[in-house]
Amino acid sequence: MRIGIIGGGVAGLTTGALASRIGHDVTVYESSREWGGCAGKFERGDYRFPAGATLGMGFEPGGLHERVLSYLGETIDVRPLTEVMQIHLDGQTVHYLQDRDLFLAELESIFPELAPRIRAFLNEVWTDFETIRPLFETLPALPFRTIRDASVAIRAFRPAQLRSFRKLYRPLGTTLKRHRLNGTAFERVIDGILLDSLQTGAREASHLLAAVALSIYHEGAYYVDGGLYTLAHALERSIRRDDGKTILGRQIVKIERIADGWLLTDRRGRLDLVDVVVSAIPLEATAQLVTGQAARQFHRQYGRQLERSQWGTFSLYVTLPEAACTGRPLFQQVYSDDLPSGHAFISMSDADDTRRTERPERTLTVSTHIDLSEWQAWKDKETYEKLETEWTERLVKAVRRAFPSWTGTSSVFLPGGPGAWVKYTKRPHGAVGGYAQTPQQALFHAASYRTNLPNFYVCGDTVFPGAGTIGAMTSGLHVARALGSKL
User: Fold this and answer.
1) pLDDT at 374 exceeding the cut of 90
2) Where does the chain cross the membrane (predicted)?
């Protein structure tokens, strides 16, 4: 079966690797010159920067990334973290520790007046995660579109899960209020953690998905040598090893349904005929490619998702001298009232990570969520440059708080606004991370990987289960299963 996969991010490469392994004729088309999409990389002189954060999850034994890589016979270099990150908030530093009990003790020492309530709250969400863990391990696809989709969930069902399922449509804000933690500094800590993983704050996030997000770091958190792009490269290697084709710099601009299958047209007018299409780009981008009656069907199915708003990301890529970085954590969150999301996330290369640089310096990727409506006129060069300058100054302040001895000198000083995401990853309007995982938009209200079109699938961060490399890989796995993979 000829399978054309549009998009060389983690989702598309996962589908391609698993489908190639079972003998399908796979071709992956990536419009840019790098694999990985939002988890890709770029280079400036002697420095290599991950496009996004490099904090890895799912590499523990039994974790999704470990399971897929092991099945494919691939490995990448990761290092477990005992301290996931440091969170700087209101003059205090919270050490986010991988060990659950130690992290709870840390929170109780930072917020002694809230200690009993924090313990009760975390015990509730951690217990809910343990209850639904069988579902997390079997990875059923929501919403159910076929008997097979439902059967995967049924096999993982346990009667004890009914109590947790009663919270299916509960926002985490309700849980915080029940524990009298709403409006507290602890809520702000939770808010930043969830915004990075669920694209929404603590009050609006789905309780059950928040339970997963607040437990996942305790399953295992990792520093990935080089960056998460190495995961994408491992998947791409596997495709080629199994005789699949992977093509960089090939932008598909039209998807047309014809009698013999699907006709793909690239921007140079070259045509490829495939039996199956897997669109591993955002739903908004997919909607721009499909033509004719197929386009109308696609819009009818995903119309609600296509109307949803998304966050954008503003990033700053800098280098710091080793002296300013010694003794500082590899990952930090800095809370600030002058950022719309309330915080910035900083990931730093390890001292001996020569894949990032061989110089006595560290490379930093600093990012924060932005409201894309503020950037609506970003095609106006003067407006864009003004916003870019303002946001750069805000992130420089965050870096100074995280690295107090930094003098401000840097060998590389490169801002990246939504225009960069449009240019290099073809994200419509620069939106990154998919939709907010609220009860009204997540789980059974999420976008299915199965379209109503014959032999046409979608995956990536705008499809269930959402953002992050684990979410993207999961959606790619769902498509691969539909194509015959037994993983």
Assistant:
1) no
2) none
